[in-house]
Request: fold
Amino acid sequence: MSSRLTRKEKQAKTRRLLMAAAAKVCAKRGLQQTSVDEVAEQAGYTKGAFYANFASKEELFLAMLDERFTERVHEIDRALAASDDPEVMARQAGDEFARYIAADEEWERLFFEFAAHAARNPAFREELVTRYRSLRDRMAELYRRRAGELGVDSPVPYDQLALMTFAMANGFALERLLEPETVPDELHASMLGIFFVGLRTMIEQQSGEAVASGAESGQPSSG
Reply:
């Protein structure tokens, strides 16, 4: 016999169902054309139930972003911890991302819908950019922590490293959205692998130059 849900659990369930309904409606109709009435009806609730949980459809979409971004950080953290080889880590992260978007193609369409809506709505753009920067900051910190565990330091600032990898992920997702039949699943993994091989080469060159400089000055290398 199942136990009755608490008030907090009921609210969490309602919010979850509203967000799932919004994803379906928005993926089909676009964010601009999606109405609160339609989302509530799709979820099986009244408009009053919607407004008891979200002040607007924009607030609901931002809650969806918060949830997805948190999931994404955990996934990448697991991928980075899976190996000590940067190229292997990169390829695993790329493969994981390809599986992630293939499993929920609706989400990628939604993300680009959010971006298009943000370009036309300054208030929504500010909220979206705040969350997106926070996600990049968290990713930069993951890269910094992993580099420390491997005993290396990136020649590229970690915030820029996160920005570059995000740009590759978004580019891959957009190409997949436009030409799913011609963009292979392994493309993103290959891109990241090449990128991190280049980064490792830069680190090795930097280390070699430091050793050479120390030898010329008669000082022992710190590495």
Remarks:
- The mean pLDDT is 84.
- The first helix runs from residue 7 to 29.
- The chain has nine helices and no strands.
- The CA atoms of residues 118 and 125 lie 4 Å apart.
